[in-house]
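U., I forgot to send this yesterday:
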Amino acid sequence: MKCKKCGAKLDRKADVCPSCNAKVEKIGYFNFIKRREQRYEETQQLLAKSYVSEEQLSSAEVKEQGGIKAVYKGECKRLMRIAALKIALFALVMAGSIAVIIIRQYTSLMSKVSDTLTTVILLVAFIAIFGMLALLYDTAYYLARCARLNKKGEGVAKINFGKPPVAVSGGKLYDIILDFNCPKCATAATMHIEQVDDMFVAVCDYDRTHMLKIEAVEILEAVRGTQTPTDKVD
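Result:
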């Protein structure tokens, strides 16, 4: 949930925006039409964040030094092993769900189960299959991109939509976040990082015409200057 005036993130219980003090419009739980309109607006805002036009990019200024923060996540090899275990678990759950459907349809092992319970079991099995398939694809893609960065030895990439870019340096993985607000907005509007080909762009969460180009070299310098703890930080 975001403020319609400045774009700042809001707590759902907030009455006023902590950034610009604008009054927050409250929507009743049973006001389904308004809630649906709000969800539609939020979805459109998320979809709009996935695209940067060439015209917008050409007019974007280059960001000044500083304001980029690298958050240490852990050793690449350890994180990739965890991701591989997740893939195995997702595949196991999906295989189990398929087995349940096959047993119900082609054997008599579940013949004594009531029709209602059978329907529930099959519904859960189908949901588990599609849910695990989505998680399997997402985790496998993340694992492959991280492995590619680690093989290069050093690099930055935007892997998941809605999540910060990741950087790899010296076998360690980092999340890259922005530690500054939009310099072009009158209020304290936050910014996020998007990737266009090999270029990174800081985009204002309130006004997408406010953009700043970020050099990959600057991101890697922020990573190199980060002191990494011996233990993983979540």
